[in-house]
Amino acid sequence: MDITRYAEQVADNVAQAIEKAGLTKAGAATRSGIPRTTLIRQLEHPDAYPFNVRQLAQLSIATGAPVTKLMKPIRH
Asked: What is the value of pTM for the model shown?
């Protein structure tokens, strides 16, 4: 898997975790401490603005999803 596709997969995993936790993007941003505009930018343009490990840890705490699940690539 190339790095761009992986960044897109991570963003999709984060979006699913936010939804599963019953949060809005704004709610996830508030809970995680990540600025709302940053979170939205990363979800919408992960190829240009990928998540870093610290942000994934913050989102893991905010959503209750294990960080390993947020980082998990799709198996083909």
From this structure: 0.93
Joined tokens for residue 43: 């979800």
Residue 42 contacts residue 49 (beta carbons within 8 Å): yes
CA distance 58 to 16: 15
Is the Cβ–Cβ distance between 16 and 63 less than 8 Å?
no
Mean pLDDT of the chain: 95
Q: Please give the Cα distance from 5 to 54 (Å, whole number).
A: 20
Secondary structure, 3-state, 8-55: HHHHHHHHHHHHHCCCCHHHHHHHHCCCHHHHHHHHHCCCCCCCCHHH
- pLDDT tens by residue, 27-57: 999 999 999 999 999 999 999 999 999 999 9
Q: What angle do CA 51, 75, 24 make, to 5 degrees?
A: 40
